[in-house]
Amino acid sequence: MADTLVKLANSPLTGRLVRALGLPSPIPLARASGGSTAQPFADRTVLLGGAPGGFATSEGRRALQGGGAVVLEALPAEEGRGLDVVLFDATGLAKPADARALYDFFHPVVRRLARNGRVLVLASLPEEAEAPAAAAVARGVEGFVRSLGKEAGRRGVTANLAYVARGAEERLAAVVRFFCCAPSTYVSGQAVRVTAEVRAPGAVPLHEALRGKVALVTGAARGIGAATAERLAQEGARVVCLDVPALEEALRATAKAVGGEALALDVTSPDAPARLVATLKERHGGVDVVVHNAGITRDRTLAKMTPEAWDQVLAVNLAAIVAADEALLASGALRDEGRLVYLSSISGVAGNFGQANYATSKAALIGYVAALAPRLAPRGICANAVAPGFIETAMVARMPLMTREVGRRLNSLSQGGQPRDVAELVTFLSTPGAFGLTGNTIRACGQGLIGA
Ligand code: NAD
Which of the listed residues 160, 194, 228 is the one where a domain comes to its end? Predict the structure, then answer.
């Protein structure tokens, strides 16, 4: 859907009027259209900082340099070009007084951030801290980063936090690329956990990372699913696109556009798990990436909700996923080093008026990935959930006007996201380089206020 306010706020004719009326003034967000590049930091102004005693600084530097960055390690005296990327290692913070390092580093930096800049802060995992005070300071970093995201978001800046387990710092390369480049355009205020619990893959390509891999995307006829199929194909994956038979024409168009294949199948049909396994095994010998994206809403307040509306939503959004996974795992169709990604929702994080059925199904996925992840880690398989906020698709076009406008603006970037923005996060989590992340639920919501 078109966002007229972004156009009006950025037009020389109407921009001043928008500001005079006190309306939000969202800026156009930076987005890539093609696949990843080998040297994403080559033309960027990149600053690296760290508190004394941090254990992730050298891997952070290596990740930036590996992506072509000329890394600045002090803020340049003259105010030239704004800072495109700021990476700060806060893993050395151990005592309350150490938190001052965040202020000292970012106070002069914050006003020097470029439009659409990226901030990534690394912190120790609080539960690994030797003393409660150290855990407190590590956890405090999250409040700092979320506040920074809210303050700098009006310039399209995103700020995120990676908690890094000791021994997992060499898993940062792809994490730094994602959170410090255009793909994280609608991911802000997130705290992800990077751990060493998943068996490391044989190879970790950071560019065209899915070459030779087979991916399944459910609900791929349109919206986030279609964008995800396209994005995965750009990284080299062969994509099997699945959707209901009623949308077969649109499904075939998606499959053709991405050089993949179409599978018209209702995920709730009793034979769906067996047909999925048969298709993937017979045609491809198995599958490497599964994106459980198909989902529906049947909104009504609980008092007015029919049992059918409850059952349909739980069947598509939860039961069909669990059944498909059981079949994929029992049959061995999901290969070692596989990636499972589930489309949850901020309604699952926070609950939502009129969505008791939907929120139940989407919150269930958050619990599901947390429980599934450790079970699959020995096979090198990662399972993560993505919780989109307000994304401009057919799903939100059905909302009443005022609800839609409120949902669209109540985030740090004052605008809705595009299907591509969610597809970027899903694609990152689908790559071998995401082997440090499992059991996470990451929001693609522009740091929406709902559930924040
Ligand atoms: P969409 O309605 O545009 O697309 C969903 C697709 O899933 C459709 O093509 C639909 O036909 C397919 N599907 C539904 N039931 C199916 C079934 N039984 N079998 C096979 N396919 C089926 O929705 P979207 O906005 O692209 O959302 C994609 C996912 O992201 C959903 O899981 C949704 O809940 C989630 N999500 C979306 C938003 C948003 O703002 N758009 C926000 C939060 C979460």
Answer: 194
Only one residue has tokens 């439009």, namely 115
Structural domain including 302 reads 214-444
Sheet holding 334-343, edge to edge: 261-264, 238-243, 214-218, 287-292, 334-343, 382-388, 441-444
State the distance from the centre of ligand 1 to the C-alpha of 400, rounded, in angstroms.
18
CATH number at residue 63: 3.40.50.720
**Three-class SS of residue 295?**
coil
Report the separation in Å between the CA atom of 221 and the middle of ligand 1, taken as the mean of its atom positions. 9
In tens, the pLDDT along 289-335 reads 999 999 999 999 999 999 999 999 999 999 999 999 999 999 999 99
pLDDT at 17: 66
C-alpha 9/C-alpha 387 separation (Å) is: 28
Classify burial at 36, counting beta carbons within 10 Å of its beta carbon; exposed 0-12, middle 13-18, buried 19 or more.
buried
Q: How confident is the model at residue 395 (pLDDT cuts 50, 70, 90)?
A: confident
Confidence of residue 7 (pLDDT cuts 50, 70, 90): confident
Instruction: Look up the pTM and report it.
Output: 0.96
Do both 144 and 230 map to the same domain? Answer: no
**Nearest ligand 1 atom, CA 317:** 32
Does the beta carbon of 219 lie inside 6 Å of ligand 1?
A: yes
Q: Which residue has the tokens 């000329």?
A: 70
DSSP per residue over 306-362, as a string? -HHHHHHHHIIIIIHHHHHHHHHHHTT-EEEEEEEEEE--HHHHH--TT-HHHHHHH
418 and 337 belong to one structural domain: yes
208 domain residue, yes or no: no
Is the distance from the beta carbon of residue 416 to the nearest atom of ligand 1 less than 6 Å? no
- If asked whether residues 262 and 399 sit together in one domain, one would say yes
Please tell me the total count of domains within the chain: 3
Residue 59, strand partner residues: none
Q: What is the structure's pLDDT at 77?
A: 87
CA distance 187 to 178: 10
